[in-house]
Amino acid sequence: MKMLSAALAAVGLLSAAPAFAAPVTMTFQNVGTVPMQYVSTNACGTFSPTPTDISAGGTSASSSTDCGSAASAAHVTYKMGTKQCVFHISTIYTPGNPILGTSGYWTPSASVTQSGGATCKVVSQDISNVFTTGAFAAVYSMK
Q: Is the Cβ–Cβ distance between 50 and 78 less than 8 Å?
């Protein structure tokens, strides 16, 4: 009986994982007067399209990565001379607990790290799909 209970609990936990992917998408705006120079990307999967330099007043194409059913994350670095911004995005799935009867949920996060006098912001966040698929998008700015 103990073995059957353990097997059923394991099946319940495995079936609590989402059956879909959770892409994160980033878009960048240059609200400064000089070009934003792309430095690097650190992502859990392929980040596409690869970000490029952004002219003053310009906006990048949207780039995204999808790392599977439990989490997706990316960190993109841009600079303007000595100013630097690292833009962070993630969405992480917390599985439900069938024993307690709790549902699984996604936790999205968008943030920035700035240095050298840069002004970096999260301009907007799109959470419209977080509660269903975990997909999350954000728009960032730098000057």
A: no
Which residue, 85, 53, 67, 69, is CA-closest to 25?
67
- Residue ranges of domains in the chain: 2-142
Q: Which two tokens stand for residue 82?
A: 């000595």
If you compute the radius of gyration of the chain from its CA atoms, what whole number of angstroms results?
A: 19
CATH of domain 2-142: 2.60.270.50
CA distance 85 to 28: 11
Residue for token pair 């194409």: 61
CA distances in angstroms from 25 to 4, 34, 76, 132, listed in the order given: 42, 24, 11, 16
pLDDT tens-digit profile of 84-118? 999 999 999 999 999 999 999 999 999 999 999 99
One DSSP character per residue, 124-135 reads EEE-TTTTTT--
Nearest Cα neighbor of 90 from 115, 67, 123 is: 67
